[in-house]
Amino acid sequence: MPTPFTYINAAMSIDGKISTRQRCQVRISGDVDFERMDELRASSDAVMVGIGTVLADDPSLTVKSDEKRAKRLAKGLDENPVRIVVDSKARIPTDADILRKGAGKIIIAVSESAAFDRVESLRKKAMVIMTGGDQVDLPELLSVLDEMGIKSLMVEGGAGLNWGLVKNGLVEEIYSFIGNLIIGGSNAPTLIDGDGFDEADMPTCSLISAEKMEDGVLLKWKLKNS
Ligand SMILES: NC(=O)c1ccc[n+]([C@@H]2O[C@H](COP(=O)([O-])OP(=O)(O)OC[C@H]3O[C@@H](n4cnc5c(N)ncnc54)[C@H](O)[C@@H]3O)[C@@H](O)[C@H]2O)c1
Ligand SMILES: Nc1nc(=O)c(N)c(NC[C@H](O)[C@H](O)[C@H](O)COP(=O)(O)O)[nH]1
């Protein structure tokens, strides 16, 4: 089944954490990285996050630069990419920034385990795609997105969604900015959490580039998915 070109973009600490043990947002990267992230958003058909990220960070996932939004409009695109939340149980608050801020299509991906009334109230604010029994079926979801014309998909975390996508062999590239701080804590989320791989199943990557950026480094990896 065809799926979009899917890549993860994240910022992590020296010790691989993407936020604190309390799951509080931490400023890991500086303005240069946020500008790069905005460029990626503007050049992608869609941007996706997990519900954990919405509940922790309340992102809007909009393109921040007026110039980049104008460029998208000039190309006949919406000013923002399609914004997608993977939210198996339809837990997203109706006043989440993603539902309130910015123009363009919003998709909430739920599973059959989501409460009917939650799903119905979300339908008033966003398009709802239902896949999977207890959890969203990520391969099926990505295939539906591809059929809808979404050919490039930027994933902005968090740790659980990143795991689900990598485990299913759906991620082609990972861009991680490593900032100059140490967060620590065995319960702080890392770039990829979940159950973890057995050694025989660990995906390997080839390094696309390593670039010094501010007081950190931007690593770009290509996964060798079988
Ligand atoms: N530094 C960064 O670049 C960055 C970016 C995004 C998020 N974060 C941090 O990550 C943390 C959130 O990560 P998280 O792991 O708690 O939440 P998450 O955003 O990864 O969402 C996880 C949720 O996705 C849902 N899900 C549905 N179907 C799934 C499937 N098939 N596989 C996996 N998940 C599925 C589940 O409900 C799961 O609880 C926050 O602390 C946030 O600040 C950091
Ligand atoms: N590149 C990057 N550097 C960081 O230091 C950091 N903490 C994030 N974290 C990503 C996170 O998901 C943010 O919450 C969204 O980038 C916010 O998105 P909005 O501006 O609300 O659209 N990302």
Describe this structure in words.
It is a single chain. The chain is 27% helix and 24% strand. With 226 residues, the chain is of the alpha/beta class. It has a single domain, classed as Dihydrofolate Reductase, subunit A. The mean pLDDT is 97. The site of nicotinamide-adenine-dinucleotide has 28 residues, from strand 1, strand 2, helix 2 and helix 7. Belongs to the HTP reductase family. Keywords: NADP, Oxidoreductase, Riboflavin biosynthesis. One of its GO terms (biological process) is riboflavin biosynthetic process. GO terms for molecular function: 5-amino-6-(5-phosphoribosylamino)uracil reductase activity; NADP binding.
Secondary-structure blueprint:
Blueprint: E1 5-12, H1 31-43, E2 46-50, H2 51-57, H3 66-74, E3 82-86, H4 97-100, E4 106-110, H5 116-123, E5 127-130, H6 138-147, E6 152-155, H7 159-167, E7 173-178, E8 205-213, E9 216-223
Parallel strand pairs: 1-6, 1-7, 2-3, 2-6, 3-4, 4-5
Antiparallel strand pairs: 7-9, 8-9
The protein binds nicotinamide-adenine-dinucleotide (NAD) and the ligand Nc1nc(=O)c(N)c(NC[C@H](O)[C@H](O)[C@H](O)COP(=O)(O)O)[nH]1.
CATH class membership: Alpha Beta
- Count, helices: 7
Number of self-contained structural domains: 1
Query: Strand percentage, roughly?
Result: 15-25%
Low-pLDDT residue spans:
none
Q: Look at the helices and sheets and give the structural class.
A: alpha/beta
> Quick one: overall form?
globular
CATH superfamily annotation: Dihydrofolate Reductase, subunit A
Specify Rg, calculated over alpha carbons: 17 Å
Ligand identities: nicotinamide-adenine-dinucleotide, the ligand Nc1nc(=O)c(N)c(NC[C@H](O)[C@H](O)[C@H](O)COP(=O)(O)O)[nH]1
Q: How many beta strands in the DSSP annotation? A: 9
Mean pLDDT: 97
The SSE string, one letter per element, is EHEHHEHEHEHEHEEE
Describe the strand arrangement of the main beta sheet, using strand numbers.
5-4-3-2-6-1-7-9-8
CATH topology: Dihydrofolate Reductase, subunit A
The CA-CA distance between the termini, in Å, is: 14 Å
EC number: 1.1.1.302
GO molecular function, one term: 5-amino-6-(5-phosphoribosylamino)uracil reductase activity
Family: Belongs to the HTP reductase family.
Pathway: Cofactor biosynthesis; riboflavin biosynthesis
